[in-house]
Design a protein that fits this description.
42% helix
Length: 246
Amino acid sequence: MSHELRTPLNGVIGFTRQLYKTPLNKHQKDYLDTIELSANSLMTIISDILDFSKLEAGAMELESMQFQLRDTINEVLTLLAPSAHEKQLELSIFIHPHVPDNLTGDPTRFKQVLINLLSNAIKFTEKGSIKVDVGHRLLDEERASILVSVTDTGVGIPMDKQDALFTPFGQADSSITRKFGGTGLGLAICQKLIKLMGGEISLVSAKGIGSEFKISISLEKAIEPTPIVKKSSSSGIISKQYPHKI
């Protein structure tokens, strides 16, 4: 199903981008903007449904490869910083200096979880800030539990609605789907991916105050450390280091 669904949609997106390169009047450009936005939204929905189906069927296989934690987190923040800046939100991160950088695991799925949490924080925060804090806990000589918290000053979630967030196709409020869109699968997928990675996710939130999502993910420490080129990532990184245009 993945190939049959994604291939024609990639064709729509690809030819839309080709049309952007041709002479267009204002109305035609508006039409293309709508086509591209709709196609990208549909691609996100398809990807969520396919990922959720794999997880439900127990067919999701995690990769095991060496990666650098700080570079991986930096890629996510660089990707999402423009969305935060458009809303004039402060996006900041602090990675504790002793957090191991050279790890072995699935960086793609780790990024998927982090992107979902940060995208939600940006989406549901109208003013204020979004803060990411990264720490760790040693499990043994070979493994470490990476601890990540994402805190926002957004709309917050009432206590009686919080369980629904991790339910497939669930939303804290029916009006959320109408206002912001989405399938309601993002956090359900995150929860299952985190469980596959030997971790867990928790939420502390109150309506009108904001939310804090905490995740832990168990990863192996790399046997042969790779030299760290960027040293600044081990200290606090503020939003100024994430340009508006990537």
